[in-house]
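Data deposition worksheet. Section B asks for the primary sequence of the deposited chain exactly as it was used as input, without tags or linkers unless they were present during the calculation. Section C holds the resulting structure in token form. Section D is free text for depositor observations; keep each observation to a single sentence. Incomplete worksheets are returned to the depositor.
Section A, Depositor: J.P.
Section B:
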Amino acid sequence: MEAPSSPFRVKPDTSSDEALKHIRTANTISISPELFEKLYLTPQQAVKGDLRSTFANPTPVALLGFMLSCTPLACELMGWRSAGGNGAATLGTYYFFGGLLMTLGGILEFVLGNTFPFVVFCSYGGFWFTLGSTLTPSFNAYGAYARDPTEPWEGLTSEGFHASYGFFLLFMGLLSLLYLICALRTNLVFVTIFFGLFMTFVILTGSYWEIAIGHTAIAARLQIASGAFAFLASLAGWWIFFAQMLASVDFPFQIPVGDISHLIRSGTARAQDKERFSA
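Section C:
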């Protein structure tokens, strides 16, 4: 005889109307792993308290900060409509969208007990703050490389600045690779974002280092390629943002994000199986 289902459990085939009703009103809830990962971009884990049923989901606001910073930058890197300048024209978005909103979203993910998105959003929020401050004249990041202190912008074309800044981009690529591996426990859209960012940082590192040794033609092609991968990551960000916003207003249809959490079983599940077989 099949055991009665809990009134607080949301099944994978439950309609969006019924699912959101449970999420908003239940004091103790258990939602399907697929729905949880779609809402919070992290595998479902047991946490104390019911903050997720009390506060709004902070994930979309962090995604918003990412998209409205990364998408324009990607277009500028590819030189669309004669854009350029290493993204200096959209400097404000790096501070007030990328840096601020992603860091704020990360902190709120911390409050809800979502470790993976907390670390991801705060680290990329830090990247946008770093990029913004590097391009801000008062920080004198590139001015330190200028031969004439009265003309700090000359530092943007110096060998030392590009060779040095390339290392920061390289290790941002390494960080994105680690996130990419971890994202294999979430969904295909998240994997696409991290793959795009990993390729963006690695190729952009090559572009900066090629500029440092005077190979400007190769550097220009690498910059365009890095912009293309950044645009790919941005498109994936727009997709998952749209999916979450549809769920937030209980829209009559939902779009898939490609749940792949079942492909790699969790360490907890493996340990439980091991204990069960050894018993």
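Section D:
The chain has nine helices and two strands.
The first helix runs from residue 16 to 25.
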